[in-house]
Amino acid sequence: QVQLVESGGGLVQAGGSLRLSCAASGRTFSSTAMGWFRQAPEKEREFAAAISLSGASTYYADSVKGRFTISRDNAKNTVYLQMNSLKPEDTAVYYCAAKNHIGSYYRVGAYGDWGQGTQVTVSS
């Protein structure tokens, strides 16, 4: 299994930017696709972005496409989520997850290991 720790969340004004980091431990990181999910208060966890093993392929929810960029640095065992043009509706706890199960990149069930989450709050 891989241990994941998110960081970089905080309070930002609408239109601003944040960069989330997810530090991973474990020898399997470079062989595991990764994703970012988010959960707003009283809402279900939803997919935001994902990235393939090598980083060659990326996947985005329509709600964040064009504003968020997922990337990974396997040498640093870290996955990132660059968030630009933030909107109040982006406010949520953001979770990093390892896709170590067979299934859709867009579904929570395909991810077996999760970080503790980092809060992102976007003010209007």
Tally the helices: what do you get?
Answer: 0
Reading the helices and strands in chain order gives EEEEEEEEEEE
The span between the termini is 39 Å
Q: Could you state the oligomeric state of the chains shown?
A: single chain
Mean pLDDT: 95
* Number of beta-strand segments: 11
Low-confidence stretches: none
Q: Name the beta content range.
A: over 45%
Structural class: mainly beta
Percent range for helical residues? Answer: under 10%
- Morphology call: globular
Instruction: Outline the biggest β-sheet.
Output: 7 strands, mixed
Radius of gyration: 13 Å
Please give a structural write-up:
Helix content is 0%, strand content 49%. It is built from no helices and eleven strands. Strands 2, 4, 5, 6, 9, 10 and 11 form a seven-stranded mixed beta sheet that branches. A four-stranded antiparallel beta sheet has the order 1-3-8-7, with no helix packed on it. Strand 4 (33-39) and strand 5 form a beta hairpin. It starts with a strand and ends with a strand.
Write the layout of secondary structure elements.
Layout: E1 3-7, E2 10-13, E3 18-25, E4 33-39, E5 46-51, E6 58-60, E7 68-73, E8 78-83, E9 92-99, E10 113-114, E11 118-123
Parallel strand pairs: 2-11
Antiparallel strand pairs: 1-3, 3-8, 4-5, 4-9, 5-6, 7-8, 9-10, 9-11
Summary of the model, kept short:
Helices cover 0% and strands 49% of the residues.
Properties at a glance:
seven-stranded mixed β-sheet; 11 strands; 124 residues; mainly beta
